[in-house]
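tool_call: predict_structure(chain=1)
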Amino acid sequence: MASLKPFFPRNPYLLLRLAYAATVVLFLWICTQFYIPGKGFTYLIRFGTQRNVPAVIPALGPGAINHYEEEDSYGYDAQYYAQIAMRPWLGNPALKRAVDSLPYRARRILFAWTAYGLALGDPSRALQIYAVQNIACWLALATLMLRWFPPVNWGNFARWFGLLFSSGLCLSVRGSLVDGPSLLLIAAGVALVEAGRPWWSAVVLGVSGLGRETNILAAGAPAWPKARTFRAWVEFVVRALIVLLPLAAWLWVLRGWLGNDGMHAGNNFAWPFRAYATKWSNTVHQLRSEGIGSVAQWSVLMLIALTAQWLFFVLRPRWNEPWWRVGMAYAVLMAALGDAVWEGYPGAASRVLLPMALAFNVLVPRGARWWALLLLGNLTVIFSSDFLKPPGREDYHISGPRDLYMIAKTGHTVEAVFNDKEWFLPERSRFDYWRWSRGSATLALHNPQDFAVMADISFDLKSNDERHVTVNAGDRVLWSGDTIRTLRGVVVRDVRLEPGDTVWRLTTDQEAEFPPNGDLRKVAFSLRNLEIRVTRRAEITGAPVGKP
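tool_result:
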């Protein structure tokens, strides 16, 4: 056994610390994938081309600040907060037209102000800063949580990692939402309570209420006065007012400035557990109808995780613990959440209840018999990577001898050209890249050389249903078969690519349909992992051919 000692570090904490460091490096690497040249990190904000409002502010109009827009999408909440951040003058008529409900969105003004302030009033910089605020707050939260999860054992690492890569926090990062920065402020407020700084805690929690209204639920972190004296009670009441007054004053200002229209919370709240039960019912029905592999399986894991957290706080009261008081407050909130928070995939519940998740990871006792509960409460880690998929930038890969597929003087290469009227924009995951078709579609294989080349072309086909797809080059059938939810690999060898375009037609026997995950696009099939491997120079004579 002595010969094995050199393979193990003398410092027993070295591997553990490397795991912490590797987690941060992994997150930063993921974040770099969201950068798009010319558009920065605006992919994270999720602007949509199909809007619920007629326009955007002039700074984002045609010919103005370049930014990423999701095709055939209504976008998401951050597109409204980001526009406020670019110029937070709420009386601006253009802003009123561009934001779906300005009185409602303006209640969460804090992180629009921080972006605008850090940008020194420059709208373009404010847009980029707003997009990456969640990334900065994730890093700050990862550092702050070392207070509760220091790198001394793997149990602490599991709790720390489980929160940082929970679906709620990943959703906040992916959508530049207010939940991640809000969690940082709440965690800072509780840390100040534990450090014996209740006044500073009240200030931090009061400011956090301007980021999201439910943040003031963390006001329960400070305990009731231990000393039953008049002064102690006065101090307690004053600290409570410090938490409540910033939000109350801002709401009063907004009511006078913008009026009362749009100030209500809509379907955000409901009778206790009514919307929660509806979510369970809808999820089970979807799982039965669509089976394993649908997004319903992830909704089940999310519901199990939140239920485990809720039961922990209800069944194991610890009134003297600041984190228990915070977690219990959000457990009550969970019961009252409405359909608007639970509906859809993935829904907003997991990010709205992030403080409960952090309190859960802090308070679950150490020890082997608690591991099952800890794992149940962090099940969303299993699918959180689904929300951190980078934007698609590639349609295909090209390989082979460089002098055959590339013209050295111009840099032009053999390429696949997609018609955007027949295909949606490229997408990708960690390992795959693809385009969804809008129905039957064409694909042009362009050869810039003045001579023909031979190539092997491989790709995968996948659809949300069972359908038949045929690949034709003119009248010649290159491949024909059925596609299903699992990948169907296709290889067409010895394809002759004449100078110019060789056009393929991919025909399907069914119309495009809405996918089961709530996507607003009608899609037919996806062409995935297209690779063009140029093999040799073609003979002078011959016609474009290809054999499967």
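agent: The chain has two domains: 15-387, 396-537. Proceeding to next step.
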